[in-house]
Amino acid sequence: DTGVSQDPRHKITKRGQNVTFRCDPISEHNRLYWYRQTLGQGPEFLTYFQNEAQLEKSRLLSDRFSAERPKGSFSTLEIQRTEQGDSAMYLCASSLERRTDTQYFGPGTRLTVL
Amino acid sequence: AQTVTQSQPEMSVQEAETVTLSCTYDTSESNYYLFWYKQPPSRQMILVIRQEAYKQQNATENRFSVNFQKAAKSFSLKISDSQLGDTAMYFCAFIISTGANSKLTFGKGITLSVRP
Predict the structure, then answer these.
(1) What is the CA radius of gyration of chain A?
(2) Would the pLDDT of B99 be above 70?
(3) B45, B110 contact by CB (below 8 A)
(4) Upstream peptide bond of A8 is cis (omega within 30 degrees of 0)
(5) B43 interfacial to chain A (CB closer than 8 Å)
(6) Average pLDDT of the residues in A75-85
């Protein structure tokens, strides 16, 4: 069990650029979650997938954000036309469908928008 | 909607002593889980302890234990024999038990510093 991995760990970009993050969940986990954590705050839910289906999206997920999980394995989170307010840690977590109470987190991708 | 409140932004404790971190929550649900997560500096979030709301017995994990008061909607974490490695942000979190609602709701967190 290699745990949840995320890539890249850090991303610095200029305002207006597009960025994409990747999350690889624990292999047998069919649920995958994205959270955003700003400085000094707790993580906030963005969206989650069950297999390849995106089942819920938070109102925090503006039109500039899109998430995919095309084959039900890894997921990508893309932010288009980044803004300084997008600067945050983006956390991915995964779980079994029958054990959503036990979510395992990845190390996160820290995004800095200049 | 569920809310989780951690009103203490920072705490400090001497190594080997005991510290209690506070958390309150609000929900109309009757079946849910409560958690304490630890996030060390620049490291990933790990689960410290979990409590199922229907269980009256307080959860314990080695040096970590909780005081779960369901009627008061309070869920505090006690760390005994504090160690330097306990220095981290601690988040209280909540999830409804039904599988349809899978999102964790977190508090703002508390920064715990263990002094040598």
Answers:
(1) 13
(2) no
(3) no
(4) yes
(5) yes
(6) 97
